[in-house]
Structure formats: C-alpha cells, structure tokens
Amino acid sequence: MPKISRRILYNPSAYTGTKTASHQNAARNREDSEGPLGNEFTSISAKQFQNKYSITCFQRLSSTKHTLLDLGFHKTLSTQASSVPPATLEPKEDKLLDAHVEAYDTKEDPRMFQQHRPEYQSLSYDKSETLPVLPLEEGDLILHKVTVLKSGLIPGTIVEYFCKLSCLPVEQHVMVRSNTKFMMLCRYGVENIQLFSISELTDILKAFIRLDIPPNHSMLNVYETEFCRRVWDMSLDQQLLVADLWRCLGRSVPRYLQISFSYVNLHWKDLSLSELVQLIYIVGEGRRVPQDLMQKLETLVLKYLDSFNMEEVGTISLGFFKSNSAFSEHVMRKIGDKVSGQMADMSNYALVNVLKMFRYTHVDHLEFLKQLGKVVPPRIGTIGIQGVMHITLACSALHYLDEGIMNAVASSLPSRVMYCRSKDIAKFLWSFGSLNYEPPNAERFYSSLIDQMHRKMFEFEKFPEHLLTCLLALAFAGHFPGDLIDYALSAEFIQLTRESKFELRKDLFALDASVEIECPDYNGNRLLPQFRQEVAEMLWNFAKKEICVRPEVTEAVSLLEVMLGGPQYVKNHMILPHTRSDDVEVHLGTDRKPLPFNLEAATAAKGELQDIGVSLTDNLMNQLLKGKPSGKSLVGSKTQTETCSQKEAVEQKQVPLTDTILNVLTKSKTSPKNRPSELRPQPRGMKLAIQVSNRNHYCYGSKQLLGLHSLKRRQLQKLGYVVVELPFWEWLPLLRRTHSEKLSYLHHKVFNPVL
Predict the structure, then answer these.
(1) What's the whole-model pTM score?
(2) Which pLDDT band holds residue 616 (cuts at 50, 70, 90)?
C-alpha cells in the first residue's frame, strides 16, 4: 500500500523560517548600500569612460564644503559601531553540529590549491596574509590629511592612504567606509585613476578587499573599466592576479574576463602549470568562456596531469564543471586512473569536485568507483552537507549503487537535516529514489527529509522545480505526503511553475498520474483534464520520434505482429505516458490465445487481410521451429550454443519459416470474432505490457531497476497488466541471430509469462 500521509491544510505562514544573515555582510549591507559611501558615487559610471576612457572629474567642491570639523576619529568609530545591530542567526541549529563541518565559504574552499605551490603567490590574493595593525590615531590623522591636501593628493599618496586605512582593526572597517573623509579619498582615487600604475591599481583593489567594499558599489565600475582598458598592457600573471582580486571582492567582471581570455587565446601554449590551474579556477568562477579556449586548455591539462597534486586535480575539475565544459572521455579516464591510487590522500573538497566532473561527463571508471566505496563512507561525518549531497547525486547520475555509501549518508542525514536547503533535500531524495534504494533507517530518513520540506516551503515557492523533484522521488519510493501533493497540484503552485525557467509540466503530469493510480483515497487538488491531455500528447510525439523507432523496439514489434497474426494484435504505445517510455501491448484470452484489440491498426490493415489460415498452436510453432513437437522453448536450450555447421544441418530439416507462411498461418478464418470489423473489448483474459529494456533502466553493472522504471512496473501491475520484459542482456544479442530463433524467444515470453 502507498504510504500516504493524512491530509493537512497548507498554510504558507506556517512554513516561514528565519533567514540566516552573515556576520560579515549584514552590517556592511546596511551601512554601505544606504549610507554615504553607497550614495556618493551613484552618478559615476563606466559610461563616462566608454569612448576615450577619459575621466570626467567631479564638480569641484568649495573649500568651505571640503573643510570638515576635526572630530576625534576613534570616538566617532566607537559611537557609530555601538549603533550597528548584530546579525541574526537561526536559533539552536548551530549547537547541533560542529560549525566547521557545515561551514561552506564559496570564496575560500576553491582556493585551497593556492597554498600548495609558491608560484601561486604572484597570481592570487592571500587572505590569510597578516599585516601590521594601524593604530586608530594614525587612521584619524590620515583622514585629517585628506581634508587638508584635498585635490592636491598625488597618486602615490592616495594608494598609501588606502593601504594604511585597510590595516585598521577589522571591527572599525564599517565605520571607515561610512566616514565622509574616506569618501573624499575614494573620490580623489577615481579622479586620478589614469595616473596610477598597474601595480598601484592592484594595491588599491587589495585595500578594497581588506576594507570589505561592497561588490556592487558604483565606484568599482570605474576601476573595472580602467582595468579593461589596460588588459593588453598587462602580463598574464598580472591579468590572473587582477581577476583573482575581483573574485575576492565578490564582483562579477565578465567584460574584463572576455578581454583577458582573448589575450590567453593567443598565448595559451606559454601557460605554466600554476598559470593553467589559476586560469581554470578563474574560468570556473566566471562561468562563461569561449569553448575553443577550453579545448586548448584541455590539451594542457593532459600535458600537466601527471604533475598536478590532488587539490589541483579538484580545481581543474571544478573549473571545467562550472563553465559547462566537459573533459573528453580519454582525459576523464586519465583523471580516474590518477585519483584512484591517491584517493585516500585527497581532501573532501577536491574529491567532491572530481565527482562533479564524472557526473557531468557520465564516464564510468570502475576502479575509481570501487575506491570511492572504500574512502567515502568513513568520511561522511566530516563532509559538509552540500558535499554529501554532491556525492549521492554523482552516484545517482552514474546509476552507481554502492550500499555502503548510501547507508552512511542515510545514517548521517537525519541529525544534520536542518542544514539542508530545498535544493539539497531534492537531490538527496532524488538520489535514493532514482537508485531505487531503501536504506535500513528508511522510516527515519524519509520522515526527517519530509519534515525539512515543510520547513523550507518558502524556498520551494522561489524554486518550484525542487518541490516537484522531491515529490517525484518520494513517489519512486512509494511515499505520498498528501498535504505537499495537494499544494503542488494547486492553481497557486502551478502558476509558480509557469514562471520557472524550467519546463515543469511533465513533472506535474507524472505526479498527478502517479497519485491517481496509487492513492485512491486522495481527494486533494488534481490537474485539469485538458492539461493532462496536452502533456500526454507532447510526450507521445516525442516518443514516436525518439523511442518507438529504436531498432530493438521496431524489431520486437514487427516480429510480434508476424507471430500473433497482424498489427491488430499488437500496439506499440505509452500505456503510462507519465513514465516517458513505451510498451508493446498484447492481449491474451483465457485460453492464452492472442486477442485483436488495436482498432486503429486493424482498420488500416482491413483491406489487406485474407480469409485464409489455420490456428497457430504451441505444438505447431514448435514443429515449425525445431522440426518436432516439444513444449520447451529455445531459451536455455542447447540450440543456442550449437556451432554454425550444426545449426545449418538442423535448419535444413526444419520447415522454412517465411513471413508469407506465418502470415497465412496466423490469419484464421475459423473465428468470426477475430475479424477486425467485429473487434470488441474482451471481458476476461490477460493484458501484457511488453517492455524492451536497455542499460539505462538499471543500476550500473546490476539487474536492479532504477526508480522510475520500478515505479512504472508497480503501476502497470496495479492497473492489471502483466509486465513482460525483453531484457537487454537477452534481447540485444538475439538481434544478430536467425529469424526463427527470435520468434521462438518471443513466443516463450508471450505465452509463458511469469505470473
């Protein structure tokens, strides 16, 4: 019986959660986005520099306006700092697990590779570098000098002041950014930007990083435009350093990267190992890159692969993954060979990144997967929840079921579920559901994730695709939470799906149809009939072009029509359109004889049928195929292993089984109810759903069905069908055998189904 929860009325307000704010960013966003610094440069933009890159100076302020009262700097800082409210944290949750395990800084984790070679020092910014702390009094003096020197500040002094102010205690940086004197210094920096050298500009960016200047500040538009102008005057090392500085500022600079990539395209053969890895890291963080450049970089990856350490292998994998660039199968196998022997020494982060690329390329490296099963389970508790999600998702994408990995994940997850985003919940459920695996703690595992789904309803409203993924995965496992399904099929949620960038109608249809078959007591929202019809037609149109025309399918349909007596006895269609795969339907009477039911095919073939023929019996089929009566099928007999010469000798004694003979034999004139014009629904008998399977229906290297195909067979059985499979490991080799052997195999499958 399906596990359907009692219906609970959906109340959106019941699922709202407290949003976590970062200690580092909350105060900055309040002070900078709305404060003096945030507003002062709104009139300055890159548009001022698009043509000749000339700088339009600010309107000169009067000396009176520039003259500021010399207030005590440290006093002002302490007064303003006390007014900043603390960041809000979710209560209690942080106490349940060590914070360092779940911490996930997207700027820091990808940069671990930079600590393993000294060459990266000139290519990247080291946030861990410790600089002497500037006393508050010196900071006060510097800001006072800004008001005295005014526009007389020279470029070198401006750079020096920025660098020194960035060395003030971190807790004072918010007050520095909002100080009007610092605002004046920023103004003079923009006015003199063309006079700075490249090294001075990079020093200013470093100071901005330490001061935590907000990435969307309009002042940075000016600096970005200036760097774009100077790309071709910079060395490759300088270009990579500047790109890294922008990354540390958290600012996206696609135009700068585009120009820099054009430069690299001409000099890619000169890249050193460290330059290549740093470049691929930047490519991944920028997300967009010319594919012809990535093909060149792949050549260098292969060149340096033996020299990469494990962190660098993780970095290049992540960079290609994030930029939607796939390694060739050859490179992936080389990476698999390298990692398999050193996996125990890899960091969790690097290992997860390599797994992402295996998932993306769908390359099955068996030794890599075996080592994964040894290394990962003991580490699950030390891997952040997002990393664990990517591990299970990679196994799911590769159709690779390792019970040790899945059990370790399922055991760890309930106590850590509060760290799951809506995306994580969806991917965990999908991984287990699609692999059709139920862990030993299934009840606790699923209940904890369903509870977290309720807590994350506000996220599902923003990402409706995640809710549908969750519910479909739960359906694979036979779980149907009534209140969540009711909401997912509501007009309100369907409208959210229409606004999504993903095509979600097929998922809605699959959920609705599954509920109809498996939950007879459900009385919540349902899709409109017109909606279901439109999606079913869309899926069938796709299946006719892509699925039903596969050689192994067309061969089976053609032979079944010959064997059973014509197209009126066979129908190749989607019995369950929501499962997105076809079936060959056959009806048998209580006497196990085929019944005509395909009215459409019968009408088309009506003029071609001949009123001659005899009944096709098991005994006659055996005589035709083997030359003597027998109740045994060809499957498993010695005939399959005969040599070619033996086969020829046997076949010479058999009746030649041609299509013409079979057509005459199977078109019986003795039973008027078999004639197409008199086709009618049969009150009793057996409906067969014959499925021509392939490797993608099963877990890797096993005969365990994946979740979707298991769900399909379960639902077909609920509708009264007997599922008959032509498994790929039997049917595909038979396609190369004789006509009579294939017919004998199908005869055995159809008339001797396992009930």
Answers:
(1) 0.72
(2) low
